[in-house]
Design goal:
The protein has 111 residues and is α/β, with parallel strands linked by helices. It has a single domain, classed as Transcription Regulator spoIIAA, CATH 3.30.750.24. Helices cover 38% and strands 27% of the residues. It contains 4 helices and 5 strands, in the order ββαβαβαβα. A 5-stranded mixed β-sheet has the order 1-2-3-4-5. Strand 3, helix 2 and strand 4 form a beta-alpha-beta unit. The chain is globular, with a radius of gyration of 12 Å. The chain starts with a strand and ends with a helix.
Length: 111
């Protein structure tokens, strides 16, 4: 798994490549949770995440809670159909703003 972070137009862009499972979810939390600062805008590019276990869902939920507690915004971009289905069935999708493309995600964060 690989995590790349950059800042673009005042938005922290986090690109994740690879599965998010019990082995990699702690790394995701460790690298991404500190980005949730007061008023932060975070775009999580999940285009290259083919699989996410319940541990990955927990990591995302922690990030969501941390971001909203800091009055920030979080948008998930590029969720595969499988991830969307899993998040929908578990009710996780209700918590998140999602977008199909990077540009749509940036627009959602700026509104």
């Amino acid at each position: 798994m690989e995590i790349n972070t950059k800042t673009e137009q005042g938005v922290t862009v986090v690109e994740i490549t690879g599965d998010i499972d019990a082995n990699t979810a702690p790394t995701v939390s460790e690298k991404v949770l500190p980005l949730a600062t007061p008023g932060s805008k975070i775009l999580m590019d999940m285009t290259n995440v083919p699989y996410m276990s319940s541990a990955g869902l927990r990591a995302l939920l922690s990030l969501y809670r941390q971001t909203t507690a800091q009055e920030g915004k979080l948008v998930l971009v590029g969720l595969s159909e499988e991830l969307t289905d899993t998040m929908s069935v578990t009710g996780f999708l209700d918590f998140f703003t999602t977008a199909e493309t990077f540009d749509a995600g940036m627009t959602a964060l700026k509104s």
